[in-house]
Amino acid sequence: EVQLVQSGAEVKKPGESLKISCKGSGYSFTNYWIGWVRQMPGKGLEWMGIIHPGDSDTTYSPSFQGQVTISADKSISTAYLQWRSLKASDTAMYYCARRAIFGVFITDAFDIWGQGTMVTVSS
Amino acid sequence: SYELTQPPSVSVSPGQTARITCSGDALPKQYAYWYQQKPGQAPVLVIYKDSERPSGIPERFSGSSSGTTVTLTISGVQAEDEADYYCQSADSSGTPYWVFGGGTKLTVL
Questions:
Q1: In terms of CA atoms, which chain A residue is nearest residue B94?
Q2: pLDDT tens, A17-41?
Q3: Which of B43, B44, B52 has the CB atom closest to A45's CB atom?
Q4: Residue A14 contacts residue A86 (beta carbons within 8 Å)
Q5: Which site in A74, A101, B24, B29 is 20 to 30 Å from A11, CA atoms measured?
Q6: Measured distance CA(A72)–CA(A84) in Å, rounded
Q7: Are B70 and B51 in contact (CB under 8 A)?
Q8: Interface touch A45/B103, C-beta < 8 Å
Q9: Do B42 and A100 touch (CB under 8 A)?
Q10: If pLDDT is split at 50, 70 and 90, which confidence band does B1 have?
């Protein structure tokens, strides 16, 4: 079964650091881009950035550039989203998602999603 | 960057047809994608490349495009279709950039 499994919920204090993970299985992890998407409580989806695990080529949304770091370890089929100093406004559900390939065509859709990691930042 | 605009809500009775629109200046040049998100669940891709349906998605879900507007149509709406729906597009010709619409809450009356 093709799936992305994310790490569990986190409760942190402002100023703390955090790294959450997204492990792919059931497919060739290095052949598919992995994106990260934020969903603040009661709000919509926001694209944060995307990484190619094969060569770690990474692009960030301007809204998140400098605020988070996206990385990947292809040896263990895992992508990461990291913060150096959390803020209360980082409280949200974070999803990883696989960029879809249909047939031989890479698309800009996300076809497989992780279950989400809830991050709560509160003093 | 560009934006995608969706109506906040759409209501329809069971068995009727629901149409959810998404507008954006880049849509004539870029494909649109649609996701369904039910409460407490991750989004699910229901339409890709404007009108293609992934395997496992019911035939009642269809997509179309006209100029700067794309439309998700759900024919014969069922109670289980009540969810939030998001359109999404991207520009990967230069520096890649993905964008989601604000989402539309579909209520089945």
A1: A59
A2: 999 999 999 999 999 999 999 999 9
A3: B43
A4: yes
A5: A74
A6: 17
A7: no
A8: yes
A9: no
A10: low
Q: How many residues does chain A have?
A: 123
3-class secondary-structure state, position B100: strand
**C-alpha span between A87 and A26 (Å, rounded):** 35
Q: What is the mean pLDDT of residues A90-99?
A: 98
Q: How far apart are CA B21 and CA B69, in angstroms?
A: 7
Quick check: B100 and A46 CB within 8 A? yes
> What token pair was written down for B107?
């209520």
Residues 31-60 of A with CB under 8 A from B: 35, 37, 44-47, 50, 59
